[in-house]
Write a structure and sequence with these properties.
Elements (H helix, E strand, L loop, with lengths): L7 H7 L9 E5 L6 E4 L2 E4 L3 H5 L1 H9 L3 E5 L6 H5 L4 H9 L3 H11 L4 E3 L4 H9 L8 E4 L6 H5 L2 H8 L4 E4 L10 H9 L5 E3 L1 H9 L12 E4 L4 H14 L2 E4 L3 H8 L14 H13 L3 E3 L5
Parallel strand pairs: 1-4, 1-7, 4-6, 5-6, 7-8, 9-10, 10-11
Antiparallel strand pairs: 2-3
Helix pairs in contact: 9-10, 13-14
C-alpha cells in the first residue's frame, strides 16, 4: 500500500499560527500547455493542465492564504543563453507564462497577478503586493528561463523558497525531475510546511495496486524522449504492473537494445545496456514489456 503523504490540507493546518498576515504558499504547477500563434498573438489550445491545478489553488486561497504559482514552459534554450537577438526575444515571448495567467484568471473568475520574473527583485516586488488578508493568486514567469532551474542550483532554489512560507508540489508531470522547483525548494524548508497538491495525491492513489483483484492485470503506458529521465519511473512501474507499454522516443532505445535497426530515430546510445537489463528483468519476472511494432 502507498503510504499517505502530507498534502496541501496538512500544510494549511500547519500554517494556522500566522497572526499578522496571510501565509504565502509556493505551488509548483505544470502549466506547460500547448500554444498556437498567429503573429505575436498566442492562444492556448488545451488548458487541461491548468484546470487540473484548480482544486489545489482553490484550497489554498479558500484557506485565506496567497497562492504563488511557479511553472516551466517549453525548452527556452535561446533565452537561457542570454543573447540579445531577435530570435531570443521571440522565444521569450512565445514561452512566457502570461497567457496561462490570463486563462487561469478566467477559470477562477478572479484576477491573477503575473510576475515578470520568477526570482530577484521583480519577483519579490510582485509577492510584496499580495494582500495581507490572503486569498490572491500570483503566477511567476517561466522557471526555465534560467539554467539554474534544471541544474537544481542551491542559490536559485533559495531564491524561490524565500518567496513563501510553505511549499506544495502539484506538478505530477515533472515530479520525476530533480529540478530546483521540485527537489531543491522543499529540501530547504521545514517538512511541516511542505506537501503534495491534490492532483499529485490523486495520481499516487491511482498507482496503488495493492488491492487489485485476483487475476486482474494491471497495465501502464509511459512515453517521452529519454530513457535516462524516466528510468526510476520505468523500474518502479515494472515492479508493480503486469504490462508496461513504451511509446515516444524512448521506445527506440529499447528497440535498438533488441538488435533491431532504428535508422535515424532518436536513441540514447548510452542507455542501450540499461534497456537490455530492463528487458531481461521483465522476462525473468514474467512481465510483458510492449514496444511499438511500426517503428
Amino acid at each position: 500500500m502507498v503510504l499517505r503523504k502530507r498534502n496541501v490540507f496538512d500544510v494549511l493546518d500547519s500554517l494556522n499560527d500566522q497572526p499578522t498576515k496571510a501565509a504565502n504558499v509556493l505551488i509548483r504547477v505544470d502549466f506547460n500547455v500547448p500554444m498556437s500563434f498567429n503573429g505575436d498573438q498566442g492562444t492556448i489550445t488545451d488548458d487541461s493542465r491548468i484546470r487540473a491545478a484548480l482544486p489545489t489553488i482553490k484550497a489554498v486561497i479558500d484557506a485565506k492564504c496567497n497562492a504563488i504559482l511557479v511553472s516551466h514552459m517549453g525548452r527556452p534554450k535561446l533565452v537561457q543563453k542570454g543573447e540579445d537577438t531577435k530570435e531570443t526575444k521571440t522565444q521569450k515571448h512565445q514561452l512566457s507564462l502570461r497567457p496561462a495567467s490570463e486563462r487561469l484568471s478566467k477559470l477562477l473568475g478572479k484576477p491573477v497577478g503575473f510576475g515578470e520574473d520568477c526570482i530577484g527583485d521583480t519577483a519579490k516586488a510582485a509577492v510584496a503586493e499580495l494582500p495581507k488578508e490572503g486569498g490572491s493568486v500570483l503566477l511567476l514567469e517561466n522557471l526555465r528561463f534560467y539554467k539554474a532551474e534544471e541544474k537544481n542550483e542551491v542559490d536559485f532554489a533559495k531564491s524561490l523558497a524565500s518567496l513563501a512560507d510553505a511549499y506544495v508540489n502539484d506538478a505530477f508531470g515533472t515530479s520525476h525531475r530533480a529540478h530546483a522547483s521540485v527537489a531543491g525548494v522543499p529540501a530547504l524548508m521545514n517538512v511541516e510546511v511542505c506537501g503534495l497538491g491534490l492532483l499529485v495525491s490523486s495520481e499516487l492513489a491511482y498507482l496503488d495496486f495493492s488491492s487489485k483483484a485476483e487475476g486482474e492485470i494491471i497495465a501502464a503506458i509511459i512515453g517521452g524522449s529519454k530513457v535516462s529521465t524516466k528510468l526510476p519511473v520505468i523500474k518502479g512501474l515494472l515492479k508493480q504492473v503486469d504490462m508496461l507499454i513504451l511509446g515516444g522516443g524512448l521506445a527506440f532505445t529499447f528497440i535498438k537494445a533488441k538488435g533491431i535497426p532504428v535508422g535515424n530515430s532518436l536513441v540514447e546510445d548510452s542507455m542501450t545496456d540499461t534497456a537490455k537489463e530492463i528487458l531481461e528483468y521483465a522476462e525473468e519476472h514474467g512481465k510483458t514489456l510492449v514496444i511499438p511494432v511500426d517503428a
